[in-house]
Each structure stands twice: as C-alpha cells, then as structure tokens.
Specification:
There is one protein chain. The protein is mainly alpha-helical. It has 2 domains: 95 residues; 34 residues. 87% of the residues lie in helices and 0% in strands. The longest helix has 66 residues. It is rod-shaped and about 130 Å long.
C-alpha cells in the first residue's frame, strides 16, 4: 500500500506543478522571457566576437601589405627623384661620365679603334673560312 500512497502523492505534486505553472505570476513569466532573450543575445555576441576576430586578422594582413606597398612607393619615388636629377644635370650639360675619357674626341678615337679591331677580326675570320673551303 505504501507504493499506492507514493504514486498518489507524486500525482498530486505533478498537478500542483501544472497548476503553479499555469498560474505563475507575470514576473515569473517575464523572467523566463528575459532569460530566453539573454540566451539569444549571448549567441549574437559570440557570433560578433568571431566576426571581430576575423576582421582583426584581415586588418593586420592589410596593414602588412600596406607597409610593403608604402616601402615600394618610397623606393620608386627615390628612383624618380634620382632620374629627374640626372635629367636636369644632362639638360644643363653637366653629366657624370660613364667612361674614363676627358673629352669627346678621346671617346670618338676609342670608338674608331674598336671598330678597326672588329673589322680586323671579321677579315681574319673571313680569311680563315676561305682557307677551309679552298
């Protein structure tokens, strides 16, 4: 009989729980709604934190790329400045000699000597070729 009494008591408690849930105070229902809203907001916060982390990684990568590009721009700007300076120097007749000639005549004489050597080499090669054929 004790078992029957326990079952009756459990059924009575379940009925009491159902009654209390139906007639719960508005404050209790408001708390439940707020808890559900809190859970929803926590999920949104977690998603936003993940997005923030991704955006921060992307920002760091873009900053690195920007630094590299700024360095390239500076290098190219320096090269442009050097070329402009060279151009202005040449335009005013001031230039850095690339060869060890003091005058244009010395440069022309060296070109003539080089051409003569090339002609001699070509002539020698032609003679050598004719010896093999003939």
């Amino acid at each position: 009989m004790a078992l029957f009494g326990k079952k009756k008591k459990i059924m009575g408690l379940e009925e009491r729980i159902a009654y209390l849930e139906e007639n719960a105070s508005p404050e209790f229902k408001a708390v439940e709604r707020m808890n559900a809203e809190i859970e929803s907001l926590e999920a949104v916060i977690a998603e936003l934190e993940e997005t923030k982390s991704t955006e921060q990684e992307l920002t760091r990568a873009l900053q690195g790329e920007r630094s590299e590009l700024e360095a390239k721009v500076k290098d190219l700007s320096d090269q442009i400045i050097n070329l402009e300076e060279e151009y202005l120097m040449q335009e005013f007749g001031i230039y850095e000699p690339r060869y060890d000639f003091m005058t244009v005549d010395e440069y022309k004489a060296e070109i003539d000597r080089t051409k003569a050597k090339q002609k001699g080499i070509a002539k020698q090669m032609n003679e050598d070729e004719n010896q093999w054929i003939g």
